From TrEMBL, chain A:
Residues 2-238 form the ABC transporter domain. Keywords: ATP-binding, Nucleotide-binding, Transport. SMART domains: AAA (SM00382). It holds the Pfam family ABC_tran. One of its GO terms (molecular function) is ATP hydrolysis activity. The keyword Hydrolase does not apply. PANTHER family: INTERMEMBRANE PHOSPHOLIPID TRANSPORT SYSTEM ATP-BINDING PROTEIN MLAF (PTHR43023:SF6), PROTEIN TRIGALACTOSYLDIACYLGLYCEROL 3, CHLOROPLASTIC (PTHR43023). This is Phospholipid/cholesterol/gamma-HCH transport system ATP-binding protein. It comes from Solitalea koreensis.
From TrEMBL, chain B:
The keyword Transport does not apply. InterPro entries: Permease_MalE. The keyword Cytoplasm does not apply. It holds the Pfam family MlaE. The chain crosses the membrane at residues 34-55, 135-161, 182-204, 224-243. This is Phospholipid/cholesterol/gamma-HCH transport system permease protein. It comes from the Bacteria. Keywords: Membrane, Transmembrane, Transmembrane helix. GO terms for cellular component: ATP-binding cassette (ABC) transporter complex.
Length: 252, 244
């Protein structure tokens, strides 16, 4: 479980996050949605320590990450997996070396065991026979899958995904979404996904956090979102006419 | 502005010189970088070295108009210049262009494609992992390249002397054996090590703080070369003052 309390963050004199508080539970997919520039990426980056918050608490099972130093954070960092928007695979390493990276760096496992773990993770994301390939030789969807495999290699308790669907076709998007959902439930991970894809919201969102101009504007489940009277949220969710009509015709 | 960059540079160096998480893992990176910096630059260093020596010999011969000075001096001058200045400094300037731009664009690309963020999230000390192996590889391989360069430069001088008839082989060799001061060798090696540190660390710094996209990566790599070259010549002057 991750709790965030009253997170503030500004860049220079621009206030980007204005007191965000929320709780993210194990085994659930928590989605952060909001318009471009609303602070989604900033929030995630604060939570994993890529940005330092100005004030507030970030509790990973009651350990306050925000107020720890580099060394004290390492045990928590090892429990965090992250899928980046552009996959961020190490491009001088093969797929196998990418997935094995943190095992090599942080564990004393024998080679065969590491290899087993890598193969397990790759098969979990339905990739086979790509071990020796380099990231440049993979398609966008495959890179995302390798990214997921790398993120779960250390059996994380917390999984972050920044825009997992960006740049993917609708079908591949759904595959990736489902993969994230399955992995979350299978391993009881606390997952936080940052997206503007409304399909994902409806498909995999257990808990949804809507950010508007750096504030938590609305929070609830994907069922509630259809009946909300919150104007900004409605504008965001039903920005696509097609989506709105589809929802209405299905009488959801 | 200068102090801002200087401060940031010093902090980055401090972070990169931290004790590695796991030596065995760093070791592989060091070897990889050694191959890339050392083996990858032997070709270009060999070519420029031969020509440097050749040019020095031909031009020294041209400038020696007095009949009172023996021609063997040409060999001595080529030798001393190669050891003290040509091989370390010109070699380093060429390596700044090759290795420096390579390091800056490699690290810069990792920055803009979030690969460095990925390392950080895993809990890896990214300056250490990315920069330390490059510095170690640089300060071991670049002095070796300079030694190769010295030999080839002297050889180039001998060939050019022969071809142009400016100085015979035996006169040249007599010159090479005359009156050698070890301080030249010391100064040359000190230069090589300092330049190696400048090239690898400055280029890493430029790459590490790249912001934006592909365009900025290009800019960082240009800046890495320009700043390295200026600092190399500045260091050249300082070392000459201090050691000679
Ligand atoms: N490193 C930074 N320095 C300065 N300002 C920043 C930085 N990162 C983000 N910002 C600003 O913070 C605001 C929120 O950005 P953020 O990237 O979090 O938005 P987002 O919700 O992820 O948008 P998108 O959906 O487009 O990815 C923007 O106005 C942006 O200009
Ligand atoms: Mg974003």
């Amino acid at each position: 479980m991750i709790e965030i309390k009253d997170i503030y963050k500004s860049f220079d004199d621009k206030q980007v996050l204005k007191g965000i508080t929320s709780t993210f539970k194990e085994g659930s997919c928590n989605l952060i949605i909001g318009a471009s520039g609303s602070g989604k990426t900033t929030l995630i980056k604060c939570m994993v320590g890529l940005h330092e918050v100005d004030s507030g608490e970030i509790l990973y099972n009651d350990r306050d990450f925000a107020n720890l130093d580099f060394h004290e954070r390492i045990p928590i960092r090892k429990e965090i997996g992250m899928l980046f928007q552009g996959s961020a695979l190490f491009d001088s390493l093969t797929v196998q070396e990418n997935v094995m990276f943190s095992l090599n760096m942080f564990t004393e496992m024998p080679n065969s065991e590491k290899l087993d773990r890598v193969n397990f993770c790759l098969s979990r994301v339905n990739l086979e026979n790509v071990n020796k390939k380099f990231p440049a030789e993979l398609s966008g969807g495959m890179k995302k899958r390798v990214g997921i495999a790398r993120a779960i290699a250390m059996q994380p308790k917390y999984l972050y995904c920044d825009e997992p669907n960006s740049g993917l076709d609708p079908k591949t998007s759904i595959v990736i979404d489902n993969l994230i959902k399955e992995i979350t439930e299978e391993y009881n991970i606390t997952t936080i996904v940052n997206t503007h894809d409304m399909n994902s919201v409806m498909e995999i969102g257990d808990n949804i956090l809507f950010l508007h101009k750096g504030e938590k504007w609305w929070e609830g489940s994907s069922k509630d979102i259809r009946h909300t009277h919150n104007k900004e949220l409605n504008d965001f969710v039903f920005a696509s006419k097609f989506f709105k009509e589809a929802m209405e015709s299905n009488n959801l | 502005m200068l102090f801002y960059h200087l401060g940031k540079y010093v902090l980055l160096m401090k972070a990169s010189l931290k004790r590695p998480e796991k030596w065995s893992f760093y070791w592989k990176e060091i070897i990889r970088e050694m191959v890339s910096i050392g083996v990858g630059s032997v070709g270009i260093i060999s070519i420029i070295s031969i020509f440097m020596g050749a040019v020095t010999t031909v031009q020294t011969a041209f400038q020696l108009v007095s009949n009172l000075i023996p021609l063997s001096v040409i060999g001595q001058i080529t030798r001393d210049n190669s050891i003290l200045e040509l091989s370390p400094t010109i070699g380093a300037l060429v390596l700044a262009g090759k290795t420096g731009s390579n390091i800056a664009s490699q690290i810069g690309t990792m920055r803009v494609t979030e690969q460095i963020d990925a390392l950080e999230v895993m809990g890896v000390n990214s300056p250490g992992y990315l920069i330390l192996p490059k510095i170690i590889a640089g300060i071991t391989m670049i002095p070796m390249l300079v030694i190769v360069s010295v030999f080839l430069s002297i050889l180039g001088g001998m060939i050019a002397g022969n071809l142009s008839g400016a100085v015979t082989q035996s006169e040249y060799i007599t010159g090479l054996q005359a009156d050698f001061k070890t301080i030249l060798l010391t100064a040359g090696m000190v230069k090589a090590i300092v330049y190696a540190f400048i090239i690898t660390s400055v280029s890493s710094y430029q790459g590490f703080y790249t912001e934006g996209g592909a365009l900025e990566v290009g800019e960082s790599s240009t800046r890495a070369v320009v700043v390295s070259c200026i600092l190399i010549l500045f260091a050249d002057y300082i070392i000459a003052q201090l050691l000679l």
